[in-house]
Amino acid sequence: MRKLLSFLLIMAVVTATAFAGGKKETAPEPQTAAPVTPPVAAAPVTITLAAAASLEKAFTGELIPAWLKDHPNVTIEGVYDSSGRLQTQIENGLAADVFFSAATRQMDALVTGSYIDAEAVSPLLENKIVLVKPQGRTTQVTAFDNIQRAATIAVGDPKVVPAGQYAEEALTTIGNWDAIQGKISLGSNVTEVLNWVAEASAEVGIVYATDAASQPKVEVITPLPAGILATPVIYPVAPLKASAHGKEAADFIAFLKAPVAAAIFEKYGFVLVK
After folding, report:
1. Is there a single domain that holds both residue 115 and residue 174?
2. CATH number of residue 82's parent domain
3. Whole-angstrom Cα distance, residue 267 to residue 252?
4. How far apart are CA 22 and CA 109, in angstroms?
């Protein structure tokens, strides 16, 4: 009996050892890397900028190209005209995202009409009114108070052109607006007035200082003396309530307030509102 038990014990040990030796290690399953999702490209967006004609060169020359460097998915379409005409276009359905006026009057009208929030309006730039003549031409006009000496005078239409509104206000204050009515040609925007003087179609004209500085074919006779206008020439900017691209419009306006844009505006002769 004792021998039988010993035999069975030995067999059990041998069997267990055999099973242990025959067990194979299972190799770990290879780890599959999670797929990398490429970043989603920003959807293309087009912003419509309705800006005063006197701002066109600054925007097309440097401001818009500077913006596009960091916003390749955003296209800026500029509509440049007199602020009054732009106001009318917006009221008639122009799908503008940003309005940049050459005067507060047109901006205030769009606020009153609920196209723009009053809190969103930023007075950004200041300009000056100057009296100009064709480069190299002679004239008896030496100041705003003797402008009636000119045979032909180019002025923006006061009904729609802020520069023309300022001209009318200044000459009415001085006292010679009525005296020049038979001599004036009314331009649809300040760029048209500037071109008439540059082409010598008008003996003198009234434009912004920034426009005069951009046109080598005109010469400044004199700036409008301080104290003639009731208010300074302020350029306000604001997003439109109905903009379909509110975020991009806000980002663009923030860019216009940044130092890089400020340097460009100053380069083109504008003064920043403090």
Report:
1. no
2. 3.40.190.10
3. 19
4. 93
Its pTM stands at: 0.81
Exposure string for 117-149, b = 16+ CB within 10 A, e = fewer: eeeebbebbebbbbbbbbeeeebebeebeebbe
Tokens of 183: 């001599």
Alpha-carbon span 75 to 124, nearest angstrom: 22
Task: Please give the Cα distance from 150 to 145 (Å, whole number).
Answer: 12
Take residue 118 and report the two structure tokens written for it: 């009053």
Q: Is residue 154 located within the same domain as residue 208?
A: yes
Same domain for 140 and 118 = no
Query: Residue-wise over 209-235: b if at least 16 C-beta within 10 A, else e?
Result: bbbbebbeebeebeebeeebbeeebbb
Amino acid found at 234: I
Choose among 133, 271, 138: nearest CA to 207.
133
Instruction: Spell out the per-residue pLDDT of the chain, length 274, in tens.
Output: 444 444 444 455 445 454 444 444 555 555 655 565 555 557 889 999 999 999 999 999 999 999 999 999 999 999 999 999 999 999 999 999 999 999 999 999 999 999 999 999 999 999 999 999 999 999 999 999 999 999 999 999 999 999 999 999 999 999 999 999 999 999 999 999 999 999 999 999 999 999 999 999 999 999 999 999 999 999 999 999 999 999 999 999 999 999 999 999 999 999 999 8
Contacts for 54 with CB less than 8 Å, ≥ 6 apart: 102, 127, 163, 190, 191, 208, 210, 211
Query: Which of 182, 201, 223 represents a domain boundary (last residue)?
Result: 223
d(CA 221, CA 141): 8
Residue 34 and residue 30: Cα distance in Å, rounded? 13
